[in-house]
Amino acid sequence: MSFLDELRNILGPDGLISTSEEVRTYECDGLTNFRVKPVAVVLPTSTEQVQGVLRICHRERIPFVARGSGTGLSGGALPVSGGIVISLAKMNHILEVDLPNQRVVVEPGVINLNVTGRVAPDGYFYAPDPSSQSVCSIGGNVAENAGGAHCLKYGFTTTHVLGIDVVLPDGTLAHFGSKTLDAPGYDLAGVFVGSEGTLGIATKVTLRIVKRPECVQTLLAAFDTTNQAGAAVSDIIAAGMLPAAIEMMDNLAIQAAEAAVHANYPNCGGLLLVELDGPVAEVDTLIAQVSAICRENGAGEVRVAQTEEERAVVWKGRKAAFAAVGRISPNYIVQDGVIPRTALPKILNEMERLASERGLRVANVFHAGDGNLHPLVLYDRRIEGQEHAAERLAERILELCIEMGGSITGEHGVGEEKKHMMGKMFAEPDLATMQKLRCAFDPLSLANPTKVFPRPRLCGETPGEYKPHPLETAGVAERF
Amino acid sequence: MRIVEPQSGEEAAEILRCANEDGAAVIPRGGGTKSDWGNPPARTDVMLSTARLNRVIEHAWADLTVTVEAGCTIAELQRTLAQHGQRLAVDPLWPEKATVGGVLSANDTGVLRLRYGGLRDLVIGVTLALADGTLAQSGGKVVKNVAGYDLSKLVTGAFGTLGVIISATFRLHPLPKYTQTVTATVPDLGAMQILLGKILDAQLVPAAVQVRVGAGAPQIDVLFEGTEEGINFQIDRLRGMTPLVESDDEVWARLDAGAKISVLPAKIGETLEGLEGYAVVEATGIGWLQAGRLAELREKIERAGGSLVMMRPFPGMDAWGNTAQSNGGGALALMRSIKQHFDPRGILNPGVFVGGI
Known about the structure:
The complex is a heterodimer of chains A (480) and B (357).
Chain A: H1 3-11, E1 16-17, H2 20-23, E2 40-42, H3 47-60, E3 64-67, E4 84-87, E5 94-98, E6 103-106, H4 112-119, E7 124-125, H5 138-144, H6 151-154, H7 157-160, E8 161-167, E9 173-177, H8 188-192, E10 201-208, E11 210-211, E12 215-223, H9 226-238, E13 245-250, H10 251-261, E14 270-278, H11 280-296, E15 301-304, H12 308-319, H13 321-324, E16 331-334, E17 337-338, H14 344-357, E18 361-367, E19 372-379, H15 386-403, H16 422-425, H17 428-441, E20 457-458, H18 470-473, E21 478-479
Helix pairs in contact in A: 1-3, 9-11, 10-12, 14-15
Chain B: E1 2-4, H1 9-22, E2 26-29, E3 46-49, E4 56-60, E5 65-69, H2 74-82, E6 86-87, H3 100-106, H4 113-116, H5 119-122, E7 123-129, E8 135-139, H6 151-155, E9 164-171, E10 173-174, E11 178-185, H7 189-200, E12 208-213, E13 219-226, H8 228-239, E14 245-247, E15 259-262, H9 268-272, E16 277-282, E17 286-291, H10 294-303, E18 307-310, H11 323-326, H12 331-342
Parallel strand pairs in B: 1-3, 2-3
Antiparallel strand pairs in B: 4-5, 5-9, 6-10, 7-8, 7-9, 11-13, 11-14, 12-13, 12-16, 15-17, 15-18, 16-17
């Protein structure tokens, strides 16, 4: 029986896609400039089916890439040449809602916002809120350790994942963590979240949900410059406050958002969006302090959203900002880098200088509270050389992040896009140590094998004993 | 047993490399406050003390982060951070002696976890010395960072079995301007569980909540932090649910316990039914016991999906319990495989961790 027939036996006729035309849908994720056609796409409906598929892949040495909603921005779900894609889209059930313990158990294909949708009537929400939350899946969030605007206060996906059922690359099922905290043993759930599909496939995830705050207030403050806005952020932090979110947009980003969703943002050089939540008396006191700090730092207009509708519109503009940039530029690159927050003025000035030198524009949208930048490098593909210049600038911005003590990615992941930057951020021993972990999970390098790390590495199947691998003797890879 | 006190990460790594060549067992040691935790080591040849790795390397106060060497005590770290009105939001046992490396390795967060998360959520980078003499970093100095595997989490709670923590970087929080603790006394465990459920479901944002159960009626302590207005508002709200008295900070003094439990928050009362002794259980479900009949209690807790871990040796009881049950099937084999890749000769704290790791 052929490999595809075996897969069809496990998944049924509806669970396997293998015609060239049909698999095209899966040839890329949200990062569309990389495309690879998979050999086949499988759509399992149960953990057992995922196990069955991985057992065959293991036996046949076929690499696989897990895929949620395909919204990732670093090519994490980009297929691997000669491999299959495992879509978890059909495993989209909320299995258990446990309000007294503030836990929800879901399958990986469940859409992020649907978790909140299920528990909202009882006054709870699921805190991680990537901008794509209305379409992205929990499994993808787990793979990428997705963040969002509110992780400044509430933490990232990893903070909210307590347990994961994982099918390991050899098809065995393992349970990481538990509904209770501090399960004895290594924190495998902590290690798995953010591993970008390179350690196995999550088939069930236990999430923590959070009580909806009694009161939420969102303040908009308009500054002449992003430097002024940045100074206000510093003062807010120095005053000992931890807002739920602090977002900043520069003039280009404001124009784009306005053109797209008419968020009624003031037209200014640097816009701050500060959200505070908690008990009414606490929020009232703090919002007055934030207002005063913004004015002291030169804000012309300070406005607090008065209704839930106004608040929703303010956020709609922010969350639509990436897509909105399409209104003001034919092409653009979405970048994701992190700096220590205090380096903000420095990197903004440097980005502007580099962009104008190259005749390009950079729109800036960022999570100002934690220094996570999302520069959008605008260009026009029709102008010769501009695409290359834009790519080079986007990469130079990441180098600046590293030079300033930051990171090449705050929430989008390394994936395919940034794996060549890993060697700039980490030294060889650091990468070799990460490789030890990978080899413990996936000795045959079948799980998303070409991602995250700069070049293919192989695991000795039995540590200590040396057996040359064909790729190694061919000089293609090195052994770890 | 020989004692070595390296002065740098490089020295520590070199010591490990030599020990590894000789197959000598290395026992990493910080303040020595939790040496009894875990199973007794199978072998002890060299004690690697972090006593001289005790500097606060960088307090980037404007970025709310600190990088600190493993041997620095928690109290010393907190004093340094307080100069800029900040803290690492944990309250581990014996802060004057316990070190950053030891507290991370033993994963002793304390009651502030309810609001600020555990050590795993606060640590954002580590430098590790591995058994083969590698000195490696993971994470970084920024709060938000998803580049590469998060080895900080791997070594948090790993009891030094994968490598020796040389330094760590943490995200910090501002010291609260105002704090107030209030205490409610309830007639029995049933009433305790109902009130606890109400508090957690009430849109209040306490920094910590714990129940104290033992002699006399159970008590629930609630710690509020923040603005004066916010605290008073929340205490008034709480008073609407139950009679309260104001308490001082001493109610939060950590218990020098014989065992740590972890149960579901809604099952705390049920778990403590029939307890012979004294217990302090945080609203996160993590609790500390000075009690008898621990074997029976462990069975009951593990059946409900929780865990009971010994804080000091007890004849006939494994420190970690039935890990196949509490951190279900398949995981233990994988943990052994990770150990094998990081420490193939098994020289780091051999036998101390779960499943004989």
